[in-house]
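The authors assume throughout that readers already know how a fold can be written as discrete tokens. A single example would do more here than another paragraph of explanation. An entry of this sort, consisting of the sequence and the corresponding backbone structure tokens, reads as follows:
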Amino acid sequence: MQKLMSYMRSAMERYDMIADGDKVAVGLSGGKDSVALLYALAQMRRFYPHPFEVTAVSVDPQFGGVPTDYSPLQALCDRIDVPFIVKRTEIGPIIFDVRKEKNPCSLCARMRRGALHDAVKAAGCNKLALGHHMDDAVETFMMNLLNEARIGCFSPVTYLSRKDLTMIRPMVFARESDCARVVRREGLPIVKSRCPADGATERESVKRLLTSLEKDYDDVRQKILGAMQRGNLNGF
């Protein structure tokens, strides 16, 4: 737990992610990364030099037309004294049943982002913390390179002028394994996605590629992130 919070504090300070009085919403999907982020930020409220509040927000796509059971996450939020908001949507039925998208991930992601941003603003929050870690950053870089022949990635901090909302990624220096370790050791609940495309995405293919490269090139993910930082890519 201390290791993850150390990575997070380093990123938060390097990129000025948190200011006094910020109301930070955590985009809580129910996966290990967002759960670890929520739990760590809730702990950091006690000692971080800039006081801030935390709210958890989940967007339910209702895959298969069935509401997701978020009761384990509600119990966690009650335990760590964090307000929890669930926004139910029809994204799942629209994507898979009405439109029958052959490549659903991009459209689904856009619709979920829009719903999440609206829910965060409605909750009175000015910051949205997302559970992207180092592995996600490097995978996004590689996906852009291999699929679109361009150099790019998401930014550690992004201001959305149309929403007057700032997105932050406090775990950008942490590894996916750090998140998994915290969830396991702290006994945190996970709500598995019911998405029909889960586990069959382009990101999974890139993840396997990077894992295979690490057999010959030590710390390849850390090296790629270091190159992104030295090149000041997208604010890194």
About this structure: The longest helix spans residues 105-122.
